Amino acid sequence: MPAQPATVDWRERAKALKPRSQAFIAGKYVDAKSGETFDNVSPIDGRVIGKIAATDGPDVDAAVAAARAAFQKGSWSKMPPAKRKRVLLKLADLIRKNADELGLLETLDMGKPISDSVSVDMRAAANSIAWFGEAIDKVYDEVAPTGHDALALITREPVGVVGAIVPWNFPLLMACWKLGPALAAGNSVVLKPSEKSPLTAIRVAELAIEAGLPEGVLNVLPGFGQTAGKALALHMDVDCIAFTGSTATGKLMLQFAGQSNMKRVWLECGGKSPNIVMADAADLDSAANAAAAAIFFNQGEMCSAGSRLVVHESIREPLLEKIAALARKFVPGDPLDPQTRLGAIVDQTQLGTVMRYIESGKSEGARLALGGRRVREESGGFYVEPTIFDGVQPAMKIAREEIFGPVLSTLTFRTVEEAVEIANGVIYGLAAAVWTRDITTAHRVAKALRAGTVYVNCYDADDITVPFGGFKQSGNGRDKSLHALDKYVELKTTWVDLS
């Protein structure tokens, strides 16, 4: 079992760690066919962790061929669901047993606090694999209600080869949200992690083989989105793309599908989630705690981050005071320190993006109420203070565009209708929240909000049993819950004439 993060000397463990750096194809670690590599830079201190295989088109061809061969062979795709379950449960157990190593890889790779990596991400990643493993032999097919002279069966079949392209903010968890249902349904998978955070995906491939997954069923391709990711999305022998990332890249996935074989494309994309606090909110302390966590957890690098605080003008001042006091406790620190609550921004590029949005907020007239500076520069890493803007108007960039950093925009309203209009006035629709003691208001606002998840008197409440995904340009399809299986199966009707 993993140790408690506070009891481990993570810096010493980091020094001894020697991460895998190759691609994983057909059950073996291999170099990129070109021999090319790229630097894996840790945002903690800017040092190079290792040289990672830079896969591209020929490597994608090899991985897809291995996935297709494994699928056609049927050693996994035709395995009874109960046997697939046993393998996935063993994989989940191996993730738990190796949670310290995997969590450390995650923190070194993308800068999140080690306590979160081990206690939050690894736990949830293992749970996703285990939950879908447990579920798959309990999902029944159907018999249609036809007349007595026919028998119509409605059955689910694995779609085939799934290309899973996952982001850098929750590297292994987002991968497992795809791997759990895709593998449980009997598919083969080619996993393309972000070039910013490839280490846990590379390592988990080895654990999958140890768990009993047949060779070729899971392949991992580190590399850049514009090369490996694009080649995977355009590949004529990939049946499905499951993507989590930016809305702009999600649109490219749809284009690539149209340019190739009309593969199914499932997207979980950006967000600009509103956190609405009504004048009658019962507990401002709870609302403030939730609002701070909603934007500062994981350095604000969450597609569902509560990045817009939409607050009734009568309670704006006391609520902001409470949030600012809490924000000051999110002091950017060394991610390898178990006491750190706010880690590093993933890389120099994203740091620049966050700082440009902060400058934009100031130049457009919003009031910088807290933070706004890069800090810990002497570490060589990439850190930003918790930042709060007040007096934000709906037309400002910081109110409309996804920042993906610890930056909160505060907007005010007078009526419920105005709050809903502000909340729905962006291109995104991933998550939203409403705080009120009036049950009628709660239900009416929840129905009016165009978002895939609406929280009432809470934020970021979570369970594997409920679907996660967005409306509008936040994507389509759902991760988590039994509904996630729908993305990775084809429905077949078999009509038997009994006359």
Structural class: alpha/beta
Computed over alpha carbons, the radius of gyration is 23 Å
Beta strand % = 15-25%
- Please give the largest β-sheet: 7 strands, mixed
Instruction: State the separation between the terminal residues, measured CA to CA.
Output: 60 Å
Explained architecture:
The chain is of the alpha/beta class and 499 residues long. It is 38% helix and 21% strand. The chain contains 15 helices and 24 strands. The strands form 7 sheets. The chain has a 7-stranded mixed β-sheet, with helices on both faces. Strands 9-8-7-10-11-23 form a 6-stranded mixed β-sheet, sandwiched between helices. Strands 5-6-24 form a 3-stranded antiparallel β-sheet, with no helix packed on it. A hairpin with a 6-residue loop joins strand 3 (37-41) and strand 4. The chain is globular and about 70 Å long.
Walk me through the topology.
Elements: H1 10-16, E1 23-25, E2 28-30, E3 37-41, E4 48-53, H2 57-73, H3 81-97, H4 99-110, H5 114-135, E5 142-143, E6 150-158, E7 161-165, H6 171-184, E8 188-192, H7 199-211, E9 218-220, H8 225-234, E10 240-244, H9 247-259, E11 264-268, E12 274-277, H10 284-296, E13 308-312, H11 316-327, H12 348-363, E14 367-370, E15 374-375, E16 383-384, E17 387-390, H13 397-400, E18 407-413, H14 416-424, E19 428-429, E20 431-435, H15 439-448, E21 453-456, E22 471-472, E23 475-476, E24 489-497
Parallel strand pairs: 7-8, 7-10, 8-9, 10-11, 12-13, 12-20, 13-18, 17-18, 20-21
Antiparallel strand pairs: 1-2, 3-4, 5-6, 6-24, 11-23, 14-17, 15-16, 19-22
Helix pairs in contact: 2-8, 3-5, 3-7, 4-5, 4-7, 5-6, 10-11
